[in-house]
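[INFO] parsing input record for Lipoprotein
[DEBUG] input buffer:
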Amino acid sequence: MAGRYAVGALGVALMGLGVSLVWAQSPWDVAVWLVGAIVLHDGLIAPLVLLVGLGVALTRPGVRGPLRAALLTAGCLTAIALPDILRPGPKNNATVLPLDYVRNWVVLLGVVGFGAGVVLAVRRVRAGRRRRL
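[DEBUG] output buffer:
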């Protein structure tokens, strides 16, 4: 029970940190990002995940959960990385965003895909063991 309270307190502290970081930004930039995130999620990510999940459910039901989770995670990573991918212009301070965001985004998408593949492989192995017993 104490662990739950500790995790909850950590979550509240991180939300406070997030609010303070957002508060330091221009309200217009925050509003544009929030509206863009909503449009991207509701207009592209959610329908794509649902359609792929439906298509996979009709052909291979055991794959649907991990595939939808991977697509949702990839969509969220894309929504977060998209501003720096689309607007990689020069920065006033080169140390603010010194990383190669396109490369890191592709690597993270690969990690998500690999993780979904591992989950599917483990499920297949377990199902094979159950059939043999």
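[INFO] The radius of gyration is 20 Å.
[INFO] shutting down worker
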